[in-house]
TrEMBL record:
<dbReference type="InterPro" id="IPR051122">
    <property type="entry name" value="SDR_DHRS6-like"/>
</dbReference>
<comment type="similarity">
    <text>Belongs to the short-chain dehydrogenases/reductases (SDR) family.</text>
</comment>
<dbReference type="InterPro" id="IPR002347">
    <property type="entry name" value="SDR_fam"/>
</dbReference>
<dbReference type="Pfam" id="PF13561">
    <property type="entry name" value="adh_short_C2"/>
</dbReference>
<keyword id="KW-0560">Oxidoreductase</keyword>
<dbReference type="GO" id="GO:0016491">
    <property type="term" value="F:oxidoreductase activity"/>
</dbReference>
<protein>
    <submittedName>
        <fullName>Short-chain dehydrogenase</fullName>
    </submittedName>
</protein>
<dbReference type="InterPro" id="IPR036291">
    <property type="entry name" value="NAD(P)-bd_dom_sf"/>
</dbReference>
Length: 199
């Protein structure tokens, strides 16, 4: 398959790239500062440019999404907007613009996270964004068939515990390679409207 992968240079994106390429897929990588295509996908016009440059696709895979982590009392309207643009709108727009550019039976795989259902202090923006993406996936699945759409919802990565472990006390972690396998399942499988939890 010919697959567009966003967030390809991050911890997750690198693992997903490795997993998909190892299975013989042709992966086109997108990142802000590195990758085959370099664009900021929080800008809808740059998403348009990505699709024009990428050409025909069988699947679109998103491994990117930024949200602020702050106590609720310190959140500002700009913080909420940053969460929406960084993780929700960018992925929704990736799907909307991709519908005519992805094969009739192609697929989209988005990224959410464990905080949609298991919130933590300072994580309100992440919980909000993840929940919105998951709701969108379920709703979009009933409209875009025979194209498919799923999401992957991981726990904190084992490889990232040094940086983020203190935010997730007692919640364990998952190897990023396990999360990448969930992406393979979404891309190569037949299900749609699913949220694949990797805990």
């Amino acid at each position: 398959m010919r697959i567009l992968l966003t967030g390809a240079t991050g911890t997750l994106g690198g693992a997903v790239h490795t997993a998909l390429a190892a299975r013989g897929h042709d992966v086109i990588t997108v990142g802000r500062r590195a990758g085959d295509l370099r664009h900021d996908l929080t800008d809808p016009d740059q998403i348009t440019a990505v699709y024009r440059a990428a050409g025909a696709l069988d699947a679109v895979v998103s491994a990117a999404g930024d949200v602020p982590y702050k106590p609720l009392a310190e959140m500002t309207p700009d913080d909420w907007r940053a969460a929406f643009h960084g993780k929700v709108l960018s992925q929704l727009e990736l799907v909307r613009q991709g519908l005519p550019r992805v094969a009739e039976r192609g697929s989209f795989t988005l990224i959410t996270g464990i905080l949609a259902g298991e919130p933590i202090p300072t994580g309100t923006a992440a919980s909000l964004a993840n929940g919105a993406v998951e709701a969108f996936v379920r709703a979009a699945a009933i409209e875009i068939a025979p194209q498919r759409i799923n999401a992957v919802s991981p726990n904190v990565f084992t490889e990232s515990l040094d940086a983020y472990g203190d935010f997730f006390p007692g919640m364990g972690s998952v190897p990023v390679a396990d999360v990448a396998r969930a992406y393979v399942r979404s891309v190569e499988g037949s299900q749609t409207g699913q949220v694949y939890a990797v805990k």
